[in-house]
Design brief:
It is a single chain. By secondary structure, the chain is of the alpha/beta class. It has one domain: NAD(P)-binding Rossmann-like Domain (Rossmann fold, 3-Layer(aba) Sandwich). Helix 5 links the parallel strand 5 and strand 6. Helix 1 crosses helix 7, helix 3 runs parallel beside helix 4 and helix 4 packs parallel to helix 5.
Length: 257
């Protein structure tokens, strides 16, 4: 049986992916920086139905970490047939004031690690003519977001990359889905310092719903899933609105005083 590998599995959407895929009786490989949290998530996943759960403590924002993880997983004899590239974080503030090292770390995790893991695990899926890749993007991918400039740009990359790869792999038996949640109550808000952003409470979704929709969309071999009707309509409206207007509205919501 192949294994589902989930990055950023210690909390938020990654943790929820672990639990929902465990209920579907997937074996799991859980990846995150915090080993103690991974052990807690692994214990619950086993209770929910995952027969085999492996944990890999890794900071995927570090150069070479994604390739090292692939080597470690391969040495453990695990066949990855389901890959959830969920690990990521956002920064919030005026770009000219944000530490450049943190911005580059954000790009390394949100983009470079995702591309590396996809490239290293997908050939075996193509050979088996079976596999699923879920890349967690965001509704931020659909327009520029002032005061979260780097984050939105990384998610735009994830969306474009995933759509292109889904088309390339259309006839291989491998599904690639860009999952595009809007505001979701996880640790993301505290890490990115966006709790005070102008997003109304009704716009937030819960992680369980977002993940369930992602798994179902991948099962239906969709290339993109925007979570929630409101988010869908807003994302579609950016195709009609002038790009400058879309950026102005997003900037008004996330401007950090």
């Amino acid at each position: 049986m192949t294994t589902a590998l989930i990055t950023g599995a210690s909390s938020g959407l990654g943790e929820e992916f672990a639990y929902q895929l465990a209920r579907e009786r997937h074996d799991l490989a859980l990846v995150a920086r915090r080993k103690d949290r991974l052990e807690q998530v692994a214990a619950k996943a086993r209770q929910l139905g995952a027969a085999n759960v492996s944990i890999f403590a890794s900071d995927l924002s570090a150069p070479g970490a994604a390739a090292a993880l692939h080597s470690e997983v391969t040495k453990a004899g695990l066949e990855i047939g389901y890959l959830v590239n969920n690990a990521g974080f956002g920064t919030h503030g005026a770009f000219v004031e944000l530490p450049i090292d943190r911005e580059l770390e954000e790009i390394n995790l949100n983009v470079s690690a995702l591309v590396t893991l996809t490239r290293l695990f997908v050939p075996a899926m193509v050979t088996r003519r079976s596999g699923t890749i879920i890349n967690v993007a965001s509704t931020a991918a659909f327009q520029a977001v002032p005061w979260m400039a780097t984050y939105a740009a990384t998610k735009a990359f994830v969306l474009s990359f995933s759509e292109a790869l889904a088309r390339e792999l259309k006839d291989t038996g491998v599904t690639v889905l860009a999952l595009c949640p809007g505001p979701t109550r996880t640790e993301f808000q505290s890490v990115a310092d966006t709790d005070s952003a102008g997003v109304p409470n009704f716009a937030y979704m819960d992680a369980a719903t977002v993940v369930a929709q992602g798994i179902e969309s991948a099962r239906r071999r969709k290339a993109v899933r925007i979570n929630g009707i409101t988010n869908f309509l807003i994302a579609q409206s950016t195709r009609l609105a002038p790009r400058a207007l879309a950026a102005m509205i997003a900037g008004a919501m996330f401007r950090k005083e």
